[in-house]
Predict the 3D structure of the following.
Amino acid sequence: MRGARWNSQGVELIYTAANRSLAMAEVAVHLTLATLPDDYMMLTLDIPDHLEIKKLLKAELPPGWNNFPHLRSTQKIGDHFVAENKYCALMVPSAVTKGDYNILINPRHTGFNDISIVEKVKFPFDRRIFE
């Protein structure tokens, strides 16, 4: 709806994290305890091996890629990824936790329906994170 670091407004991408701790950190920087819904869920996805994931390294990114507010140059990277439609997923460095990666999923890719939810649990948040 609004766009984010890796996509412009109107370009659909699903943001995921490569691990649970990064998922929690990403939520913590975007929500407060007051705005965290009671029914927030943690999903574990399976991206089958036949769906190749493109990986971007920090060295390939423009200066200030992790700035806030987001740069238009990083949005163009994600927009190009979606428009090219060669890969179903794009692995990008996390701006929140150094060394971790987010995985962006293109829901318009032909392989999208091969991705499955393997686990769905109540989001395991320790409230001390927000204190």
In short: The chain has two helices and six strands. The longest strand covers residues 116-122. The beta strands are 14-17, 41-46, 53-55, 89-93, 101-105, 116-122. The chain has one domain: 14-30+40-124.
